[in-house]
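Internal tracking record. Fields below are filled automatically when a chain is submitted to the structure queue. Please do not edit lines marked as system-generated. If the sequence contains nonstandard residues, flag them in the REMARKS field before resubmitting.
Queue: standard
Priority: normal
Entity type: single polypeptide chain
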Amino acid sequence: MPNRLVSATSPYLLQHAGNPVDWWPWGPEALAEAKRRDVPILLSVGYAACHWCHVMAHESFEDHDTAALMNENFVNIKVDREERPDIDAVYMTATQAMTGQGGWPMTCFLTPDGEPFHCGTYYPPQPRPGMPSFGHLLVAVAEAWRERRAELAEGAARIVAHLTEQTGPLEESVVDDEALHAAVVKLREEADADRGGFGGAPKFPPSMVLEFLLRHYERTGSADALSIVESTAEAMARGGIHDQLAGGFARYSVDADWVVPHFEKMLYDNALLLRFYAHLARRTGSGLARRTAEMTGGFLLGHLNAAEGGFIASLDADADGEEGLTYVWTPEQIADIVGETDAEWACELFSVTEHGTFEKGASTLQLRRDPDDPERFDRIRDALLAVRELRPQPARDDKVIASWNGLAIAALAEAGVALDAPHYVHAAERAAEYLVRTHLVDGRLRRSSRHGAVGAAAGVLEDYACLADGLLALHQATGEPRWLTEAIGLLDVALARFAVDGVPGAYHDTADDAEKLVQRPADPGDNASPSGASALAGALVAASALAGPERAGRYREAAEQAVRRAGRLATRVPRFAGHWLTVAEALRAGPVQVAVVGPDADARAELRSAAARAVHGGGIVLGGEPGAEGVPLLADRPLVGGGAAAYVCRGYVCDRPVTTPADLVRQLS
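SYSTEM-GENERATED OUTPUT FOLLOWS
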């Protein structure tokens, strides 16, 4: 019989609705049940595209004997970390503190009040070296609860107190030119000069760090910064982590050479990478960067689009229970499709070998050089893709997450301008329409929706900040005042509801009226996506240039305070402060603001295009009619001689207006 998860909106929870485990969704009813039964809580956290979550589900949660142990001794709660990042953050912090590492699936044992006393991640059905079986762990925890409950409860209370003490606001530190240079030096030391990226295996796409380094290069001309950017961008684009047939990037590479990915594809990764590769193509003219951006944009529009609007969360790592089944190839499979002659050429080009680079003699597809016959390559790629589409396909986690959609809206809006691809801007508009229509309820943002129905979970700081940033990028791409108005509304709520009282520049990840957990999370670090606080700082910088004088000073001061609060993080561990550093670069550069005015779009087109090509990352470019209503940046910007003109400002200092693209480029240089 289905359990309580059968009515969930989360695809991850629905995956467990047929388990023999008596699962509860997170909520006051579940905690009350643990108190009524006087048993601990077993909290299991994961997400729909997680390979090892599927493994543990099959090994343990589908097993009737294991389920009986769980049901007898615990109240079992299942949480989708993507729907409830606040719950995930609290207990992941506890897991990392107890074990020195974290990951998903996450397995935590809590008191009925929600305080953690034992945490871990994946547990196997049979003991392994250094790891008990899940069944043995269940028995041991149940016995400890019966025999040493007071000791466990006391320890859990100490853990919560320690975590609260250790996760307070950081001390302020100036992020000036010296600090930004020091961050580049540290990144240079940690970079893999031979294979791109940072550190060894596994390797994750360092999107935000690359965006910072590109902005730093634009502002300072640093050869070190550009070298890291170009080597990493090429290694990722040519490796197996990048889908060489359909575009899009997998979550990470299990090896140091970017050959074998962990095959799940996440919206946030691909949004951040689209934005970065579009900026790189604009700045360097790299054909590889442009093709990669176009393939990534095509993947977003073709594979992560939601029917009602917006973009879905992810594609699974598995298909038919087998990781990578959709994506890998043998030489024989390729020969069967394109014939022996073309197969020999294609296998050499795609690094498909007899021994294989993955499992069972199969290989991921790489593209370590450009094809010498592009027409032949396109024909073969189309043939392989057509056959691949007939294979079992990875499941779609089709919920729409506000913050990740904000990242996608920003990426599509900026890539649409940088690559002269108006269909990207149209897609960003469609997503923004959906988010504003569906996720904004009584002036407050909800975290997720599915099939057009909004969920109950409240938006967290990253939702407000990332969506605001996306709407500000869309405002610049379209000139529509509506998107600026909506962004300002989100930012004002964020400043009012998420700030840490009495600590300028510090923010909680949950609002002051959100559900009270054992700890109020406040993680400033940038990880797979920007932290809520760094995303807020970035949106505030842009808004300070766009929102008009009544808000400009307040927004800029708030952004500067937030960057100072993250200063030590940015200089000591820059790999985990990539977005903070991009925001700091925008502040150091002004940010540059370009207002292009003209009597109509055609008159503005040349200047608008020149500005889009020449402006540095983080710069503000907006076009429209002089004094357009609801567009403060165009106020008091008259035409020159009755024709189009561009006004360039840095901070509060403006240059004289120019009327030719050449003069505009010179000013921006």
